[in-house]
Amino acid sequence: MKKVIVGITGNEKELPPMSGLTYVAVVKDLAEGVKAAGGLPIVIPIGTPEMAKDYVQMIDKLILSGGQHVSPQFYGEEQSVNSDDYLLERDQFELALIKEALKQEKPIFAVCRGMQLLNVALGGSLKQDVKHHWQPQLEGTSHDLQVRPNSRVSQLFAEGSQINSFHHQSIKDLAPVLKVTARDPRDGTIEAVEGRGRLPILAVQWHPEFLCRDCDSNRQLFDYLVHQL
């Protein structure tokens, strides 16, 4: 049986810092989650928007991975935070990947920054700075989840499920073609969205790849991506 090919967007990292050596980087746990679910992960390095069509034709499904802030120019705002954690080339390329995936009707799963970029690509906007959403340790969780009944997320996560939190930005205005399926009960921050109707989109604000080794629900999220989305 042919494996489902899942493209994962890659970041760029200078390793070690100040070395002048730039690597294509993806958190290994994302690829491992896809493999454990029976899929075949392929890392997509940052390219030009013109390359997006060919990349999307190669894959069955697309994961938009985490990383830098999304440049506010793409939702009509000026930068209001003191940060240099942006990568314009990545934004431009991944926006082109999203456009092609929708055009080619390839399902999209988005994580953290990926969810934020997806919302922007579909006509939404972001809060440029949110407080108390960055937990001190990579391992573990920081708050629970308020889940919308009869959603894709509710098939996998029970009300009150514990999730992690590693983000300084969040969704402000939701894109019209998306609907909210989970929130942070502490302040209402949007934690999961999915496409309206049959639009094959699922996105989460937390990092399931950091939790799937010890959590059945997050493991099943990758299984859902590979076999059902």
From TrEMBL:
UniProt cross-references to InterPro entries, sorted A to Z: Class_I_gatase-like, Peptidase_C26, PuuD-like
Pfam short name (any one): Peptidase_C26
PROSITE patterns the record matches: GATASE_TYPE_1
Family annotation (CDD domains): GATase1_2 (cd01745)
SUPFAM superfamilies associated with the record: Class I glutamine amidotransferase-like
Gene Ontology terms for molecular function: hydrolase activity
UniProtKB keywords: Hydrolase
Protein name: Gamma-glutamyl-gamma-aminobutyrate hydrolase family protein
Organism: Streptococcus zhangguiae
